[in-house]
Amino acid sequence: MTKLSVNINKLATLRNARGHNRPDILQAARDIERFGAEGITVHPRPDERHIRYQDVRDLKHIVTTELNVEGNPTPDFVALCREVRPEQVTLVPDAPDAITSNAGWEVVMHQQFLREVVAELKSFGARVSIFLDPDVNLVEAAAATGTDRIELYTEAYAVQYLANREAAVAPYRATAARAGQMGLGVNAGHDLDLDNLAWLHQQLPELAEVSIGHALVCDALYLGLENTVQLYLRQLK
Ligand SMILES: CC(=O)[C@@H](O)[C@H](O)COP(=O)(O)O
Ligand SMILES: NCC(=O)COP(=O)(O)O
């Protein structure tokens, strides 16, 4: 079974546009869970342009499924995770000025750093996942960090899906299979949507969780949040 974790960054972007509390992202998280999602994902960035550190603290009291906190493990980010103790922490190597996540970890170059961060996060009970490009050659180095899971960075899949879905999924299938053989769990995320999600799910038997935000929130403008969450869940059946 593949779980759907809904990324609510873009709801916070909308809220921050006016400086008040509309939409109320805590209520949205409650509702998204009530509509069937199995997790809530947030990706606080240093400039707090969408999810703020205080939101993460508040969400810990609200979320009853799984809270997945994504980010670059700066000292401030690790301190936030130590305080909040989310069920899962996903490490993403995004630069402070990045518009959105744009690469997986160079796990060989950063192996020692990641090993230390993973150990620290696991010491207070978090499951740890490492954002990774789809490349079988990276899996061994990822496993050596002690991470529990990898999150496959799916932008390249999403871009290629409409032209050639078989070619698009091939490196993901190989990387997920290798991760499974090495005892790592497999998550996926970035630019997944109602067109490309079902094929990824069918092709990756190892897929434990997808985190989806941007497309899901865009779809909800037309289809409504409850209906949209259920449509995404249906792709994972
Ligand atoms: C790791 C990942 O791919 C997502 O967290 C993505 O970065 C969403 O963040 P934004 O909503 O800021 O684009
Ligand atoms: N980890 C990926 C995520 O949380 C959402 O990415 P996107 O659907 O907003 O591209």
Automatic annotation (TrEMBL):
EC number: 2.6.99.2
Active-site annotation: 43, 70, 190
Domain of life: Bacteria
Keyword terms of this UniProt record: Cytoplasm, Pyridoxine biosynthesis, Transferase
Pathway: Cofactor biosynthesis; pyridoxine 5'-phosphate biosynthesis; pyridoxine 5'-phosphate from D-erythrose 4-phosphate: step 5/5
Subcellular location: Cytoplasm
Pfam families: PdxJ
Entries under InterPro entries matching the protein: Aldolase_TIM (IPR013785), PyrdxlP_synth_PdxJ (IPR004569), Pyridoxine-5'_phos_synth (IPR036130)
Catalyzed reactions per annotation: 3-amino-2-oxopropyl phosphate + 1-deoxy-D-xylulose 5-phosphate = pyridoxine 5'-phosphate + phosphate + 2 H2O + H(+)
Residues annotated to bind 1-deoxy-D-xylulose 5-phosphate: 45, 50, 100
Main localisation: cytoplasm
Residues of the site described as Transition state stabilizer: 151
Family (UniProt): Belongs to the PNP synthase family.
Record-given protein name: Pyridoxine 5'-phosphate synthase
Organism in which the protein naturally occurs: Hymenobacter negativus
Protein's gene: pdxJ
